[in-house]
Design goal:
By secondary structure, this protein is an alpha/beta fold. The chain has 7 helices and 18 strands. Strands 1-4-5-6-9-10 form a 6-stranded parallel sheet, with helices on both faces. The longest helix has 12 residues. The radius of gyration is 20 Å and the shape is globular.
């Protein structure tokens, strides 16, 4: 487990989604304690019981999603970013200008693009407009085009990454289940920022359990097919889709290459987290966390974690090489 993603509660109430309104508040709901060289938001301590005073004492927090337009949000973005916590913008009423202020303050990700945010309008592009901004370093955003890097340190040692280079155009996460976003919307996002997509499942504990009523926190959730909704409403409550399904759908919806679809689930998330010096690629010295996919349908054939095989479907895999079909023999 790489760490925790705290999604909330610093949200716009109008974009709360399946979150309980009673728990939503602004970062300024609590005071800010200032020392000689550090600003510590007690909102984080009051909400999560943690202090941002030490970058090594954040209790495994690696991502925080908040609404950048809320009072106190910009100062919290700066503080979290200074402590190497990835700041994502989501569940927000933010305008394009407010989104830009968020990323120039340190935010590098948009959570669940298209969902729980204002739709694109020709006079107010909103968060979607962020995908049309130029990269700050003048590059075209290609994964291999960056010439400079930033180096930070966490509990695992030096972290070298280019996640801080593009100060204006953030990465964006997408739930590609055919429900959270229409295939055409997914294709649009890919066309606007082909190297910015981070595939996520947003899956709840009912994934794989079939239709019926399940529990998400204190809420009851109805599952029907791939749709999860708060019981008695049409409000989406996470998903029940798997990551391999998201990769397949992203490839299908966008008509992108297999490599582009896989990078959206591997390299791009690693870059967002600043760990692409050890994850996201198959390279010497990188962590041996691997997934073997079938050539045509991208079905999962095998999985290794830390070099240890934890799932094996290789014996039934079929591989196509040239015009010949051959069985992969289990080693």
């Amino acid at each position: 487990i790489l760490g925790l993603h705290l999604e909330g509660p610093f949200f716009a109430i109008s974009k709360k989604g399946a979150h309980s309104e009673e728990h939503i508040h602004d970062p300024t709901a609590a005071t800010t304690t200032t020392t000689e060289d550090h600003q510590d938001h007690t909102a984080m301590k009051d909400t999560y019981g943690i202090s941002m005073s030490s970058p090594k004492k954040n209790d495994g927090i690696v991502v925080v999603t908040l609404a950048p337009e809320r009072p106190g949000a910009i100062s919290l973005i700066k503080e979290l970013s200074n402590q190497n916590v990835v700041v994502a913008m989501g569940h927000t009423d933010a305008t394009l200008a407010e989104g830009i202020e968020g990323v120039t303050s340190g935010a590098t990700l948009i959570t669940h693009l298209f969902n729980a945010m204002n739709p694109f309008h020709h006079r107010e592009p909103g968060m979607l407009g962020m995908l049309m901004l130029d990269d700050d370093d003048g590059s075209d955003g290609n994964d291999e085009s960056h010439n400079s890097v930033s180096t930070n340190t966490n509990e695992n040692g030096p972290v070298t990454s280019d996640r801080n280079i593009s100060k204006h155009r953030p990465y964006f996460s997408l739930i590609v289940d055919g429900i959270h976003s229409h295939p055409s919307a997914v294709k649009l996002a890919h066309r606007l920022h082909p190297n910015g997509c981070v595939l996520v499942t947003d899956a709840m504990s009912a994934m794989g359990l079939g239709d019926g009523t399940h529990t998400l926190g204190t809420m009851k959730v109805d599952i029907k097919g791939n749709r999860a909704t708060v019981s008695g409403t049409n409000t989406l409550a996470g998903s029940v889709v798997s990551m391999d399904s998201c990769v397949k759908s992203y490839r299908k919806f966008t008509k992108c290459s297999v490599g582009e679809a896989i990078r959206a689930a591997t390299l791009h998330p690693a870059k967002v987290l600043g760990i692409d010096n050890r994850k996201g690629r198959i390279c010497a010295g990188y962590d041996a966390d691997l997934t073997l996919l079938g050539v045509d349908e991208l079905d999962v054939m095998g999985t290794w974690v830390g070099g240890k095989k934890v799932f094996d479907n290789i014996s039934s895999a079929v591989c196509f090489g040239g015009s010949k079909k051959r069985k992969i023999e289990q080693s």
